[in-house]
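Open question from group meeting: does this chain pack into something compact, or does most of it stay loose? Before anyone orders reagents, we agreed to write out a predicted structure and look at it together. Recording both the input and the output here so the notebook holds the full record.
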Amino acid sequence: MSAGLAAVSSGFKGFARYLGGVMGADAYAKYLEHHRLAGHQDPPLSEREFWRDRSDRQDSNPQGRCC
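Structure tokens returned:
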């Protein structure tokens, strides 16, 4: 029984991770990874600053998106 429950739990976690990626929930983590790999000298934006900037950019540059 526990093996079946572990498989269901693993499948659900994978689906949740996929759905989060589709919805853009992992955008800040991707930004931090890019910032680290690109070797920027300035500190990364805080999570709050990142989401505000992202929202402002989407509002000022509307592109084809669902909503």
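Observations to bring back to the group:
The two ends are 42 Å apart (CA to CA).
The helical segments are 2-23, 27-38, 47-60.
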